[in-house]
Amino acid sequence: MEYRQLGNSGLRVPVLSFGTGTFGGSNDFFKAWGNTQVEEATRLIHLCLDAGVNLFDTADVYSGGAAEEILGKAISGLRDKVLISTKATFPMSDGINDFGSSRLHLVKSCEDSLKRLNTDHIDIYHMHGFDANTPVDETLRALDNLVQSGKIRYIACSNFSGWHLMKSLSVSERYGWSKYIAHQAYYSLLNRDFEWELMPLGIDQQIGTLVWSPLASGKLTGKYRKDHPVPQDARIAQGGNPVINTPADEERLYTIVDALDEVAKETGKTIAQISLNWLLQRPTVANIIIGARNEAQLKQNLDAVGWDLTIDQVKKLDKASEILPIYPYWHQRQFPMLNAAPKLYNNTLK
Questions:
Q1: Which segments in the chain show pLDDT lower than 50?
Q2: How far is CA 122 from each of CA 63, 90, 111, 213, 319, rounded to the nearest angstrom?
Q3: CATH number reported for the structural domain that contains residue 283 in this entry
Q4: CA 261 – CA 266 distance, rounded (Å)
């Protein structure tokens, strides 16, 4: 397994982590992701550890806390061997203060996650989304207090806009508080909007990227093809798709899959493995969160590492998935000499 430093921190993480959105299945949305319970979760976690994957990603909102509970039980006796990433911000109930990034909610959410996970600390604590109704300094002061208390090791964000993240970094720097070291973001061959603003920001501010839904909710697995029926046993057909796509994206998908088919013939790898490996060649990407409903899916995804696409293969996929960005990004691309030079991670550990 390859390990990369996460942003501007001393924390090293595997390039693959295991996402627990499939744990629990306690409502219709998450049931479409999966219904993994403690026994199978324990097997999957041991498979990950055997492969060198020691980072496990979850969130309080996943199945209303059930995913955290199952993860906590599945890692019993293994806490010193694993890293835990969890999140807060989204509503956990109908309570008027049971959502957002206020001090009140974050302190309660952290305490609740610690109990469900059966641990005394969280390694990476994400703001699952940006709360525009709470002062940024209130959120960051609360997070810094949690870091100082030892309940959190590092803080990160997820699904932020560029200005959300930059303002947060500025406030932390102004007061000497803990900074976000990473941004958990959606990024895939099918959707490359991340490259317009968030990737340059990550390069400039040394923010590591943890990628969620790297296979575009299963669309980059080879199951979705032109003139083929949509798989009815997949997450999208069952109402569990967290990714919004336009009709134009659907047409682009078939072009991308054709290119993936060509690379698959050249490499002997699956379409899913190639899609994941492409992401590992992108600037700022430190980790890709993979999910799996069963052992077969997990083992296939784990084989996405230990090899690299050639430069020509990467270019072929780049071209097939390219899309014209919105203003001002298309204008900025006309002057590449003014843009931040991308830097791939080269401080890796095997």
A1: 237, 344-350
A2: 19, 18, 10, 22, 40
A3: 3.20.20.100
A4: 9
